Amino acid sequence: MPTDHDVTLCPSCYAPIRWTVTAAAKRLPVDAEPSADGNLAVYTDGTGRVRSRALTKDRPTLEHNEWQAMPHFATCKAPPARRSTRPGARTRTGVRPTPWRPR
After folding, report:
1. What is the pLDDT of residues 59-100, one digit of tens each?
2. CB hemisphere CA count around 6 (13 angstroms)
3. What is the pLDDT of residue 103?
4. pLDDT at 81
5. Is the pTM of this model over 0.85?
6. Pairing of strands 40-44, 50-54
7. Which of the listed residues 9, 11, 68, 87 has the most CB atoms within 10 Å of its CB?
8. Half-sphere exposure of 74 (CA within 13 A, CB side)
C-alpha cells in the first residue's frame, strides 16, 4: 500500500496526486488513492521512486507489492488548456502564392 509522504496537489484542480515514472522514463501523475477501476499498476522500487506500468493482456494482474491506480489525466476536474503542437505557431490566412516558373 502507498504511503502519504509522496503525495502532492494537482496544480489545476488541487486533488491529491502522486508523480510516477513509467518504463519509458516519462513522468505520469496518478490519483493518490488506489482505484479498483484503474488501468495502472503502481509500486515503489528499491530506491524509493514511485514507478508505474500499464495493465496489459500480457500482464493483467498486480504483482508483488503493486497497487492499482487511475491516471490523473482521466479524472482531473480542471484540466489545463491544450497547448499547440508548435510553440509560437501562427495561423495562416489566404492563399500562398506559388513561385512563377516558365514553361
Report:
1. 989 988 999 999 999 999 888 777 666 666 666 677 777 777
2. 19
3. 67
4. 76
5. no
6. antiparallel
7. 68
8. 11
First to last CA, the chain: 75
Contacting residues for 49 by C-beta, under 8 A, at least 6 apart: 21
pLDDT in tens, 5-36: 789 999 889 999 999 999 899 999 999 999 99
3-class SS string, the chain: CCCCCCEEECCCCCCEEEEEECCCCCEEEEECCCCCCCCEEEEECCCCCEEEEECCCCCCCCCCCCEEECEHHHHCCCCCCCCCCCCCCCCCCCCCCCCCCCC
